[in-house]
Write a structure and sequence with these properties.
heterotrimer, A alpha+beta, B mainly beta, C alpha+beta, A: alpha+beta, Ubiquitin-like (UB roll), FAD/NAD(P)-binding domain, 7 domains, seven-stranded mixed beta sheet, six-stranded mixed beta sheet, about 20% helix, elongated, C: alpha+beta, Gyrase A, domain 2, Alpha-Beta Plaits, five-stranded antiparallel beta sheet, 5 helices, 10 strands, about 30% strand, binds zinc ion
């Protein structure tokens, strides 16, 4: 039965290129140029889905992005994608798809039994039925509903495709490649402006692809071909087809997804990015996004075989197939008469046109009558029949808002309907544009623009072709002109035009029985199965705001975002409340216009590229030595260096012992470094740091702490005076950027009088830090020209000289408590110096160590790490570091120390903790309580502090921790409790210095 | 995504900038002369208006200059960009 | 070989070379050069004039411009900041220091702070725009211009050298591995587009 409904030679499909595909396990044949939807219709497949709540049979209703029913699971395995609209899937050979809304099958469906329990599924049924008890919802209802409703399945294997992004700028961005958009693009192109034309289809032409209209006396597609040829020939024009503009953001910034290989079978796709996310910034935007036809809301308006009149027209003219053999057309406007004539010319029997208007007397109506089509005026369809495909419609006379008289059944297998047109204003509204209601056209049209936006064509409520072409051109010219480009005027264009009778809005088509009483359902939202009766009920229950209505009934909340349903729902609600549509207002339009895959949003920012990996010049060595890495911000830092068969605890014990007993080496290159120069540098440091800098002489280093104006610790580090007017500031690894921004903000905004320049040199230098009793001996062998003894090179000073043959800066600082030298060399010598240290240090037992050993050793000494032992709520005083706060000068944050809250004595203060059980290492972050019987989770009022750092110490041969405890310094000696899962750990509060409190080791 | 005109580099994407919050909040000359409430007002309190807002931005991925921007917090429209130390132009904006 | 300089991407030299797509794009890391960050008040003739006579180079005052004096470059970084780029082992820093002594300036050796990647070929612009929000259209950005921005998530100082286009990408050493990996990944598709390569199932 392949292609039984095909119209030989018709349409834009290639009748010579046959493509095999598979739908719901059956093989079919389609043509190149088909969508999956058109290929199915050509094979007479109309039943493609089951509805979400009632599991009613559903068919293909549209031919575009607005499709609510024909959602499929496309492809299998890693390529599988759920909820893709069959109307937008370009057919390729070997395509495989399944219905998503059909378990166990489309044809025989256990869920259709739901129809018997329809009363369950009234508006708000989720809220009313399932939300309580919660457990039942999670365990029973939700899985069952999801399976029956078939939301599609996410693939379980990684996506084999690649995706990318592209930034582009243009003077003129035209969205939509129909007649208005093409005209606008031509106007822009002829002005030399940089023009982008974006269209979601594979072919430009928009509505003209589906109509038999004429432009300048020739078929419209000939005009399109000429326009495209001209645009393609111009270097200032970029054409993007298969590209959906899905979001319109601030300052004319639009997101566009270009589908580059989706139309090719997965196995045959070239290895290029499958989809590309365009970040487009346009000076001017022309929206020529067209309009979407509205369904009519009548009883049982959802049977397979019922579709939009424009869709039927599209299937005949563009896809060369008859969507049925005997059609009835139901319309309240003249547009669908054109569809009726096209069906007729394609050999489809048109049984009748049912028109609620009393006098449909436009030119097209006259033409239809002349061609012998029966036009039933003042009539409405009041019921339909047919289970898996529509079989007949019931027609009655319409009088006002009632139907009466005899019921006539007309047999048909296709019902083409039209309730008028809704301009596609999604992007316009995302850009914050405002709408007004056009009562004549019965639709919402753009009113007030909010950005550099122009709206033209059907998107602006213009439905007459010749006028649309003229307006499109004018919009393009105006936009180009505002962007600073002149475009020549174009002569008027002639096109097919019909005198029309006005549309008659009919928001609910009445039936014999009142709404909701009879068997028939008047569907408004097909995807979410919302009926007119549901909206009436919601209004009765008090959901009178359109935003509430939307959420309560879920109207417009499906993957189609209510493209077909929103205006009907809005009008029905307005009618129920007895107010006008503008009084009711619309829901907010949000991006994306059509669904966007996560893959393309991520682009190539996945795997190793998901975030920058920053590495030091010594990284290769760490890798070779099997270092285990820790992420510190974006840096990869060696965490520890395990030897064969060594676990982390054993490695740490060995590394810690080595530093305390012989010598260890740490890659400290990640510390932030800022070169500060200028005659006012000392004054600047005095204002930034809490301590004083006036007495620091050339060659000396000093530890400094900086606070924000709220008095809380922001960063710390050692700063060294390199010259009369030159200092080198170090910052914590994570704060290098923020500190430089902070310094610049004060220099540039508050203190422009200070003559100081700051330059980041973080990446210029590699820092090799050697620490341990044998550090001096080792360095002596590497730097024989530099006097290293304690007198010549005292603690907290700086020297320059050659280390391993390389000009170096040496700093005598210590973060471990041991004798320590930090060797700084330009980063391209870093690996050489590190390797020299390792080679020379071998006989001294040199041990490379990582950040964890560094953390343990510094904690044994009670040295804090900003960001670990502080969290933005901790002052220097809280840390027991009042000594670093100068009383002699003003500095950032000082005044805050006198604030009542900052001066409280019961603030959390840094203390040490020794667990009673020396083997128990408390988890960092553990909350502490005073009550031995408290169990986790505890009341907040019981918590008196928390653990900030916690380790097992090799030198102490026991566990220890640092903690912030309320009024902690006055509680030294007390015991606190850490309620953990399954046990409570007791720990004694101590001084936060556990080792070498008199600093006897740092000079070696 | 905003398009911000750096006074030096010209229009650039928002990703290159860092917002520094409300502008024209001068650091008190003599913090000790302020009572706690006045000091807290300087440190913590911001106008957070719905509408026109003058704020500091830094072209942190570009020329590293701080400057002032007048932006509507409703429409995100930017009607003035001016250097540190300069006064904002008089007229507010065309729209809220 | 204590003096041998090891560039941040020394371990990726062959990977960069292999990423080349003939007639489309090529990528390499340039050998080290001297880079000096210079700060000073350009409106002060004592500063601008001294630099000019010492280096025979006029510091660009127009933002995002590059002055080129016989291979010595001055890239505009800010209204009071330039990056001077000269041959490896030049005495640039010493010359500036002695010429500008006594003035309030900042002269900072940043030779090892950033490495320079050269990305050139007909597809170079497109590849950059996959991760860089700058408008690189020839109407807006051309040879002799520079800009600081981002490449994907890394800081970037970009200098267009010629109309081919060839770009020099100044990237901080610690970010060089990321930036190069990102570029190689972004270049890949041109190779396959060229060969009409098919994926394997
Ligand atoms: Zn800038």
């Amino acid at each position: 039965m392949n292609g039984a409904y095909r119209l030989p030679g018709k349409g834009r499909v290639d009748h010579e290129r046959r493509l095999n595909f598979n739908f719901n396990g059956r093989r079919y044949e389609g043509l190149a140029g088909d969508t999956l939807a058109s290929a199915l219709l050509a094979n007479g497949v109309v039943l493609v889905a089951r509805s979400f709540k009632y599991h009613r049979p559903r068919g293909i209703m549209t031919a575009g992005a607005e499709e609510p029913n024909a959602l499929v699971q496309l492809e299998t395995g890693p390529w599988s994608e759920p909820n893709i609209r069959a109307t937008q899937i370009e057919l390729y050979s070997g395509l495989e798809a399944r219905s998503v809304n059909a378990w166990p099958s489309v044809g025989f469906d256990i869920g259709a039994l739901n129809g018997l329990f329809a009363r369950l599924f009234v508006a708000g049924f989720y809220y009313k039925t399932f939300m309580r008890p919660k457990l039942l919802w999670e365990r029973l209802y939700e899985p069952a509903i999801r399976r029956m409703a078939g939301m599609g399945k996410a693939p379980t294997t990684p996506d084999p495709e690649i995706y990318d992004k592209m930034h582009a700028h243009c003077d003129l961005l035209v969205v939509g490649g129909g007649p208005a958009g093409l005209a606008a693009a031509l106007a822009g192109a002829r002005s030399d402006a940089r023009v982008f034309l974006v269209d979601e289809q594979n072919e430009l032409g928009g509505s003209l692809l589906s109509r038999r209209a004429e432009i300048e006396g020739a078929p419209a597609m000939e005009w399109v071909a000429k326009a495209v040829e001209e645009l393609e020939a111009r270097a200032n024009v970029t054409l993007l087809t298969r590209a959906s503009a899905f979001g319109y953001y601030d300052h004319n910034y639009l997101g566009v997804v270009e589908r580059r290989t989706d139309h090719i079978a997965p196995s045959r796709r070239p290895l290029i990015a499958r989809q590309r996310l365009w970040h487009l910034r346009a000076k001017e935007v022309v929206l020529a996004t067209g309009a979407i036809e509205r369904p009519l809301v009548f009883a049982d308006n959802d049977r397979p075989g019922i579709m939009l009149a424009s869709a039927a027209q599209s299937y005949v003219n563009r896809y060369g197939l008859a969507p049925g053999k005997r059609a009835v057309v139901f319309t309240n406007n003249d547009g669908a008469y054109e569809a009726a004539l096209d069906l007729l010319d394609a050999g489809v029997e048109v049984a009748a046109i049912v028109d609620p208007r009393s006098k449909p007397e436009g030119e097209l109506a006259a033409l239809a009558r002349k061609r012998g089509i029966e036009v039933l005026a003042s009539a409405a369809i009041t019921a339909t029949r047919g289970r898996k495909r529509i079989a007949a419609v019931e027609v009655m006379a319409l009088e006002g808002d009632r139907v009466r008289g005899p019921r006539a059944w007309i047999g048909c297998d296709l019902l083409a309907m039209s309730g008028g047109w809704t301009p596609t204003v999604h992007l316009f509204c995302q850009a914050k544009g405002r709408l007004r209601y056009d009562a004549t056209k019965a639709c919402l049209v753009p009113d007030v623009i909010a950005q550099a936006t122009h709206v033209t064509g059907a998107a602006n409520g213009g439905f007459e072709l010749a006028a649309v072409l003229g307006e499109g051109f004018a919009a393009g010219r105006a936009a180009a002109s505002r962007a600073g480009f002149e475009s020549p005027e174009a002569p008027p264009i002639t096109a097919t035009s019909y005198r029309e009778s006005p549309l008659h809005p009919l928001w609910i088509v009445p039936s014999v029985k009142p709404l909701g009483r009879g068997h028939g359902k008047h569907f408004v939202d097909f995807q979410n199965d919302i009926t007119a009766a549901d909206i009436l009920l919601a209004a009765r229950e008090g959901y009178e705001s359109v935003e509430h209505l939307k959420r309560y009934t879920t109207t417009g909340m499906g993957t189609d975002q209510g493209k077909l349903s929103n205006v009907n729902a809005l009008a029905i609600l307005s009618g129920t409340l007895g107010q006008s549509i503008p009084e009711t207002g619309t829901t907010t339009f949000r991006a994306p216009y059509t669904p966007v895959s996560y893959g393309v949003l991520a682009g190539r920012d996945i795997g190793d590229l998901s975030d920058p990996i920053r590495i030091t010049a010594i990284h290769e060595w760490h890798l070779e030595r099997g270092a285990v890495f820790e992420d510190v911000g974006q840096w990869k830092r060696p965490w520890y260096f395990p030897r064969k068969n060594e676990d982390m605890a054993a490695a740490l014990k060995r590394e810690c012992k080595a530093v305390r007993e012989s010598v260890g080496v740490l890659d400290a290159s990640t510390l932030g470094k800022i070169d500060i120069q200028g005659p006012d540098a000392v004054e600047f440091l005095n204002r930034i740091y809490t301590n004083g800098w006036s007495t620091l002489t050339y060659g000396q280093s000093r530890y400094g702490m900086m606070c924000h104006e709220d008095g809380m610790v922001f960063d710390d580090g050692v700063t060294t005076r390199l010259g009369e007017n030159r200092f080198l500031m170090t910052t914590t690894t994570g704060n290098a950027g923020p500190v430089l921004d902070w310094l610049e903000s004060w220099l540039q905004t508050e203190w422009p009088e200070l003559r100081v320049y700051c330059t980041s040199v973080t990446d210029q230098w590699v820092t090799v830090s050697i620490a341990g009793p044998k550090a001096r001996k080792l360095l002596g062998e590497l730097a024989p020209e530099i006097a290293l003894d304690g007198e010549s090179f005292p603690f907290m000073t700086f020297r320059q000289g050659k280390v391993a043959g390389v000009e170096a800066r040496l700093f005598r600082v210590s973060f471990t408590g041991e004798l320590s030298f930090e060797i700084n060399v330009p980063s391209w010598h870093g690996l050489h110096v590190w390797e020299a240290v390792m080679a020379t240090g071998e006989k001294h037992g040199i041990t490379p160590y990582g950040t964890e050993t560094m953390h343990v050793l510094r904690a044994e000494k009670g040295f804090v790490i900003v960001g670990q032992d502080t969290d933005g709520t901790v002052t220097p005083e809280d840390l027991g570091m009042g000594w670093i706060v100068s009383k002699k000068k003003d500095f950032l944050g000082r005044r805050s120390f006198a604030r009542v809250d900052t001066a409280r004595s019961d603030r959390k203060q840094l203390v040490g903790l020794l667990p009673d059980d020396p083997k128990e290492v408390l988890p960092e972050g553990t909350q502490l309580v005073g009550d031995a019987n408290a169990r986790s989770p505890m009341a907040r009022s019981l918590m008196v502090g928390h653990v900030t750092s916690s380790y097992a110490s090799a030198v102490l041969e026991r566990s220890f921790a640092l903690a912030l405890v309320k009024g902690g310094r006055a509680r030294i000696g007390e015991t606190l409790y850490a309620p953990l899962v399954g046990k409570t750990v007791a720990a004694r509060i101590t001084e936060p210095v556990f080792f070498d409190p008199k600093n006897e080791r740092r000079d070696g | 995504m905003l398009l911000i005109e750096c006074p030096w580099c010209g229009p650039r994407d928002e990703v290159e900038f860092r917002c520094g919050g409300e502008a024209h909040i001068a650091r008190p000359q003599d913090p000790d002369a302020l009572d706690d409430a006045a000091w807290a007002d300087y440190v913590f309190m911001r106008t957070n208006p719905k509408g026109w807002h003058r704020e500091r931005w830094c072209h942190s991925q570009g020329c590293r200059r701080w400057f002032n921007v007048r932006r509507s917090t409703v429409s995100h429209e930017i009607t003035a960009v001016y250097k540190m130390g300069e006064e904002p132009p008089e007229a507010e904006g065309s729209a809220q | 070989m204590a003096d041998a300089k090891r560039s941040p991407l020394a371990f990726m030299t062959s990977a960069l070379a292999e990423a080349e797509v003939p007639d489309a794009v090529a990528l390499r890391e340039l050998s080290p050069r001297t880079q000096i960050d210079l700060r000073g008040e350009v409106a002060d003739p004592a500063f601008a004039g001294t630099v000019e006579s010492a280096l025979r180079l006029t510091l660009p005052r127009t933002p995002n411009r590059v002055a080129d004096a016989g291979g010595l470059l001055a890239l505009w970084l800010g209204p009071d900041e330039w990056l001077l780029v000269g041959p490896e082992a030049s005495d640039l820093e010493a010359r500036l220091r002695s010429a500008l002594s006594g003035q309030h300036v900042a002269i900072t050796d940043v030779s090892a702070n950033r490495t320079v990647l050269e990305l050139g070929g007909p597809k170079a612009r497109e590849i950059l725009n996959k991760g860089c929000p700058l408008d690189l259209d020839p109407r807006v950005f051309g040879p002799g211009q520079c800009a600081q921005s981002i490449l994907a998530r890394a800081q970037l100082l970009l200098h267009q050298r010629d109309i081919e286009p060839t770009y020099h990408l100044y990237v901080r050493g610690s970010f060089a591995f990321y930036a190069a990996s990102w570029l190689i990944d972004a270049m890949k598709e041109y190779r396959f587009a060229k060969r009409g390569g098919r994926r394997e199932r």
